[in-house]
Amino acid sequence: MNQQIVFVTGKGGVGKSTIAAAIAFKKANEGFKTLLVELGDQSFYREFFELPGVNYQARSLRKNLDVVLWSGPECLKEYAMHLLKIESLYRLFFENKVSRTLINVAPGLPELSVLGKITSGPRKHGPTEPYDFIIVDAYATGHFISLLRAPRGMAKAIQYGPMGEQSRSIDQTIVDPNICKFYYVTLPEELPMKETQELHETLKNEFKIEGQWILNRILETNLKAKDLEKSNLGQKTKINFETYLSSVLDRQEKVIQKLKDTSVSWQELPFLVETDPYKLVQTLSERLK
Amino acid sequence: MLQKNLFSDVKILVCVGSGGVGKTTLAAALGVMAAQQGLKVLVLTIDPSKRLAQTLGIEGTQEITEVPGQKFKGQLWASVINHQKVFDDFVRKAASSANKTGVSVSAERILKNKLYRQLSTSLSGSQEFTALEMLCSCHESGRFDLIILDTPPAKHAMDFLKAPQKLAALFNEGIAQWFRTPQEGAGFFANLLHSGTRQVLKTLENLTGADFVRELADFFLNIEKWQNKLEQRILQVHEMLVHPQTQFCLVTSFDLAKLKEAESFAKEIRKNGYHLTSVLLNRVFPDWILPEAAETSEDPKKIEIYRLAQLLRFYYEHRLELYAQFERKLSGDVLVMKLPDYVEPVSDLDGLMLIGSQLEF
């Protein structure tokens, strides 16, 4: 099968990384060779899954599933090595203070290197990864938009030469719905919903990307807000549990109703109380559609 | 009494923490608290929710605005940081002070550079720099007793403080040097050095194309002119940040990952000479009263309410345990404040005052 890429983003604190891991678990459980990718230079999964380390070389997390941490400079290094082939030329280029600085700061270069690496399989360009699925625990919304804009911005600025060509090819790949899928993780709360709405519109208008929403931490119950009694609402502190529950359910019901009224594709995931990370992610993966 | 400690002898309060912990709202609430105590205070926010922006009177404006409808002993002012504007302004200012003649040419040239135009707001460190640049100029204006800064969302809280140095690297003289053709008679060593870098540039050109290298050269040669100005500014920013009257408030919330992050951040912040004086734990505990036990009840509704209450209580108790561990690890002189998990998001002035009154020390 052709390699598929899944990007997972969302506002900070909504459970984006946990959901990305759950999607990866699901694909791995279905028998696909899966790679879970973290971006940046610090790993969340190392702490979360209590691993001895997560870095540029893939490490096995469980059957069919590897985890990896990719940063801009490292991706660029590997790419340059792949193209240059000659060790001495590579050394001259990289083991040089000015050039190292340049790689870190040149506008757009780190973003492009990371996206280039992620899409190298479908584009058949550069060093590729032998996986059926690449699940990317991407940056939070704002940074994620900057990341996606980088290839297009670069392609506009640079018309000719390999940089222009690669930028265009990356841009075409990320907007191809047969190759890349996007998930926006959100919570039934005001701020995350607003941010997700803005993200959805930006990506739709600029890239024609239609991401799927994942409404996380839904309190599952057969109770309805209207069945519950509200008391002492004038006071904002020390309310009884039923009043609290009624507010939570009311907010939840409104958000779900709002989503039902749109053409957005979405699914719910439950609020779980589980302290074992593997069990938590496994349970969530079983609930994913 | 403790509330007073938070602002006494403080000129700048920087709220730091990773994304999604409620920094913006809390920065505004601290602003309200300070204004209630009689200070003239400015809250610089990054990306307030629509309703919070409306409350602060800063929706759709980039000006520093007096918050409407306030009846405080002091005064509350607010502003949103517009990164593109602050950055462009800085470029213009830096260019004009760098060169008294033909200045605007170089500022306009950089503003017209294709790479800058496409990518300036995503330059690494630029958002952090603009936040600090605005803080610095507001501080210098002397208009306020206290400025509270809300910081940009970052995956890791430390990124914020490292950013200006990272940006400074952009303006590094060495890089521009690299793209310059050597002048005739530059001497043997200069030429030797250049032949080395030429090879590197050639490699970069093979990888990326001549067009890219040309734009890059244009970019670096143009910004080189304000290297001095930028370095000066970064030094000023640093001095401002390590000054004893500049204090840091670390905002953090629920999950284990965020707490681990906060823990390492608290360490880093002190190691680097900044003054971390308070930690705000947001959404720590629910402020509701548990329902009576439902074991004896046969009403399915009551049983379900009780089940959910137990579920949530277990969840919060687990979190409280994590918080207790976190607090033990923070050493003595830090003020730890706790806030309950609100039912409705807070966005009006009354709500902000309520937060202040509910801070548990």
Describe the structure.
The complex is a heterodimer of chains A (289) and B (361). Chain A is α/β, with parallel strands linked by helices and 289 residues long. Chain A is 49% helix and 17% strand. Chain A has twelve helices and nine strands. An eight-stranded mixed β-sheet of chain A has the order 3-4-2-5-1-6-7-9, with helices on both faces. In chain A, strand 3 (59-62) and strand 4 (65-70) form a beta hairpin. The model of chain A has no long low-confidence stretch (mean pLDDT 89). By secondary structure, chain B is an alpha/beta fold. Chain B has a domain at 2-83 and 129-161 and 241-358: 3-Layer(aba) Sandwich (Rossmann fold). Chain B is 56% helix and 14% strand. Chain B contains 15 helices and nine strands. Chain B has helices at residues 2-7, 23-36, 50-56, 83-98, 103-112, 114-119, 126-141, 159-170, 173-179, 188-208, 210-223, 227-242, 256-271, 300-329, 349-358; strands at 12-16, 40-45, 65-66, 75-80, 146-150, 246-252, 275-286, 288-289, 335-341. In chain B, helix 4 packs antiparallel against helix 5. The radius of gyration of chain B is 25 Å and the shape is elongated. Chains A and B meet through helix 3, helix 4, helix 5, helix 8 and helix 9 of A and helix 6, helix 8, helix 9, helix 10 and helix 11 of B.
Radius of gyration based on Cα positions of chain B? 25 Å
- State the helix count of chain A: 12
What is the helix content of chain B?
55-70%
Order of helices and strands of chain B: HEHEHEEHHHHEHHHHHEHEEHEH
Q: What's the number of helices of chain B?
A: 15
* CATH structural fold name of the domain at 2-83 and 129-161 and 241-358 in chain B: Rossmann fold
What is the share of helical residues of chain A? 40-55%
Q: What integer value in Å does the Rg of chain A equal? A: 21 Å
CATH H-level superfamily of the domain at 2-83 and 129-161 and 241-358 in chain B: P-loop containing nucleotide triphosphate hydrolases
Ends distance of chain A: 20 Å
Biggest interface, residues from each chain: A-B, 74 and 77 residues
Global mean pLDDT of chain A: 89
Strand residue percentage of chain B: 5-15%
